[in-house]
Amino acid sequence: MVENGLEGTFTGPTELHSFAGILLDMDGTIVDSIEAISKHWQNYIEGLIPKEYGGDAVEIPGARSLLAALDLAHAPWAIVTSGTRALLSGWLDVMGLSRPDNLVVAEDVSTGKPAPDCYRLGIEKLGLTAEKARAEVLVIEDSPAGVLAGKAAGCQVIAVATTHRIEQLRASGADWIVQDLQSVVLVGLGVDGTIQLEVRDALQL
Q1: Beta strands 176-178 and 15-19: pairing type?
Q2: pLDDT (tens digit, 9 = 90+) per residue, 106-126?
Q3: Greatest extent of the chain over all pairs of C-alpha atoms, in Å
Q4: 198: how many CB neighbours lie within 10 A of its CB?
């Protein structure tokens, strides 16, 4: 079978993993707003695009339930995006999605992805700066540049195949590739506070 131009199937066995924290990209990972932005970017103030044209954006399957579960469990998580604070806040508000305590946006770093600066800052905001803790942080991304940034920051990375070709995500070094966030399920928090996460139906080559 060919999945997104590459031999393989999304039939991997369910795996249980523990992570010290989770950092999620926004566009293409939680919400697909590419159509809304491409249609209206030139004609409108950026921060107002979600409010005025939210109907042109769609949730990535599984995103709402994963974010809600992380929030309910008081898990250590953050959103790390190349978008501006106004744009991120607008999408979270319009879509009614859970908002983490920690955000990293374009204004917070001088160099964007694939540089690791944004994810390093995300790790710091979660208070996980020790080398061991950093290696146990999970990044969830949709783009090759984002995967590269997460790996360069020392994290493990799940790539969601929502916007880019699988071979691009593999070449970037993703540890797992899944179709969407329905394959990423929070089980709970361990006694040591680590996030217990199931990865289901990952790409099998």
Answers
A1: unpaired
A2: 999 999 999 999 999 999 999
A3: 51
A4: 13
Q: Which residues pair with 176 in a beta bridge?
A: 158
| Overall residue count recorded for the chain in this entry | 205
Is the model's pTM score more than 0.90?
yes
Q: Are 156 and 19 in contact (CB under 8 A)?
A: yes
Alpha carbon distance 77, 32 (integer Å): 20
Q: Which of 170, 126, 179 is nearest to 148 (CA)?
A: 170
Band of pLDDT at residue 1, cut at 50, 70 and 90: very low
Asked if residue 151 lies in contact with residue 173, where contact means CB atoms within 8 angstroms, the answer is: yes
A 10 A CB-CB count for 162 gives: 17
Tokens encoding 55: 């109907």
- Cross-strand pairs, 19: 195
Pairing of strands 2-3, 6-7: antiparallel
Report yes or no: 56 and 31 within 8 Å, Cβ to Cβ: no
Angle at CA of residue 164, ends 138 and 95, nearest 5°? 70
